[in-house]
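Bench log. Compound arrived from synthesis this morning; before running ITC I wanted a structural hypothesis for how phosphoenolpyruvate sits in the protein. Inputs:
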Amino acid sequence: MIVVLNHGVTQEQVQAVLDRLDREGFKVHLSKGDARTIIGVIGENTKTRLPGLALEAMPGVEKVVPILQPFKLAGRDFKPEDTVIQVGDLEIGGKQIQVAAGPCAVESREQLLEAARLVKKAGATILRGGAYKPRTSPYSFQGLEQEGLRFLAEAREETGLAIVTEATDPANLQLVAQYADIIQIGARNMQNFQLLKEAGKLNKPVLLKRGPSATIEEWILAAEYIMAAGNYQVIFCERGIRTFETYTRNTLDLSSVPLIKQLTHLPIFVDPSHGTGKWSLVPAMARAGIAAGADGLIVEVHPNPSEALSDGPQSLTPENFEVAMKEVKGVAHLLDKEVARLNK
Ligand code: PEP
Ligand code: MN
């Protein structure tokens, strides 16, 4: 439910409503917009209990209305203003654009450190790399696991890049969370509800990739699982969906970017690497993602793509990544945004 306050409501009146809701055991979110002040209310049985409080009789209250969307916490009704997620000095969801780049998988200490240095030089602020890999075949390289996490931490130490890496199971979530600045939940796990609930108990940003055949509503409801468990730091990531098309690995559904922005207050990244499966298409779709309004990109870059243990065909060389970054900066500039840089 949301409580809509009158134009010109006073601070004291707002506080009185907040106190009343607090006494009744509800959790609230106050949104002070230019046009309107709104209180989002959550708790057990809000729909049946709130009308009994007759909040409309309190000074400054215009109306109490239900949220009609199936998702509540993620929706704009509940919180009209954009959410900005802080990762160290970096802001995700504001005027800055963040670019996460690095190999699909952490393969060795040397490979990862080299990739980290190169993507930092080209202007990335976040290092990506999977230590736990959700591979289609059980015979494919499955990742270095904790050793890979240690290499990621070492790369962060040396370069100052933030780390995004995937947790594939509630069993490795805690460990991944100890090392990562942002926890990735992969496309295949978008509806692993146990993993979502556990990630909701952490105080760490979660990059939630879209399932290969998930509707937008299912995807937002997956975010809602994380938020309902208490963690509001969710970043969507569009990485393409499965269609009849076979020239590309997935079909990058860029219409989801403005749609997610309309429906929710959360930030969204675009992954042009898994979205296309072909390195030659990645720069164009990276530009397009930013043009569509994405708050960031996650791009696979490998020091030597032809030798990559996973996703080589869609990985950019460091040189091509550098060119793509320049182009992305140009698009960001047109939108009055800025591609963030590391301070150190
Ligand atoms: C990845 O980022 O390497 C990955 C496995 O992505 P997705 O979950 O989108 O397939
Ligand atoms: Mn990959």
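What the model suggests: The pocket of phosphoenolpyruvate (ligand 1) is lined by residues 104, 130, 134, 186-188, 209, 239, 274 (CB under 6 Å). The chain has two domains: 2-65, 85-339.
ITC booked for Thursday regardless.
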